[in-house]
Amino acid sequence: MLNKKLVTFGETFLDRSGIDRSDQMKISEYREHTSSKYLLYWRGKLPVKSDERDQLCWVNKDHPLVSDYNETLIFLGLDINIPIFSIDISSWMPEDYDPEAAKAFLDQNIYNHPAMPKKSHFAELRGFMNKISAQEAEISVIARGMHSWHQSNSFCPKCGHVSIPMHSGWQRDCSYCKISHFPRTDPVVIMLVTNGNNILLGRSHGWPERMYSCLAGFMEPGETIEAAVKREVFEETSVKVGAVNYLTSQPWPFPASLMIGCVAEATSTKILVDPKEIESAIWVSREEMLEVFSGNNQFMYPARKGSIAHFMIKKWMMGDIK
């Protein structure tokens, strides 16, 4: 198993204080705490300071946006005894909003709310996840994942009636059938498929041009990690896999997955891509991958920095993964 602390979103600092979520007196006390901090969320984006994007932009309890969007509040936990919350202001619409760009793999647009601190803006987490501290990265995962869950679960999946946020944002109760719903994380296997001095990489439809990464796919009900790895690789490329070993994991808030990183030994090499699954797949040697990472390969870009795929491929190049 690889050191999870070296993976973006892989470290844990926050005291989630789950026992306090249903204690409204305690939450009210936390909200009135003189040092309480609030992280705003807007349509999948989080606020960062300046063009460096190496720090999140926080506001305090007296900020006007905190009171204006009070109903969307989520208690994230305690950061060294400092209560931290997140609030969704997605109902705000800037004049220059680009709805088409928002559908892209990575929306490069940034947006400035007039009430936000100067030199701050909302930006896509994918674009700065490897710049902020590991502590703020963990908080970003929780905030983005929780708000995304709320946006997708406004109605009860059982009866279709409106659901209501409860327990400081960590539960939704149906207004009609009274059933309770809780945040979910989807398990996804992501595989470093090896064959001697080569690894198998693929690219999905809609990815940035020339970007290749490890194969990946959602686990199915009743399926083990090993079985999911073998099935996904074969479905996407027709390559058969033998031994499968766990490497590490990464929470991935796009929107709510747990990436389960594995290394798998290929027992066949012929590629036959299913175009419904992926766009293409290729075998890449260690020497070729070194050129890719150094920026000297005109045909391929590596997986994005901060992703578990980038981490695993780099470890393989260094010889830490056989």
Structure description:
The structure is a single chain. It contains six helices and 15 strands. The two termini are 12 Å apart. Helices cover 20% and strands 28% of the residues. A hairpin with a 2-residue loop joins strand 10 and strand 11 (198-203). The strands form four sheets. Strands 10, 11, 12, 13, 14 and 15 form a six-stranded mixed sheet that branches. Strands 3-1-5-4 form a four-stranded mixed sheet, with helices on both faces. It has two domains: 9-152, no CATH class; 186-317, Nucleoside Triphosphate Pyrophosphohydrolase, CATH 3.90.79. It is an alpha+beta fold and 322 residues long.
- The coarse silhouette is globular
What fraction strand?
25-35%
Sequence of secondary-structure elements? HEEEHEEEHEEEEEEHEEEHH
- SSE class: alpha+beta
Q: In total, how many domains does the architecture comprise?
A: 2
Given as residue ranges, the uncertain stretches (5+ residues, pLDDT < 50) are: none
Radius of gyration: 21 Å
Largest sheet: 6 strands, mixed
> How confident is the prediction overall: mean pLDDT?
94
What's the count of strands? 15
- Helical percent range? 10-25%
Number of discrete helical segments: 6
Q: What is the straight-line distance between the termini? A: 12 Å
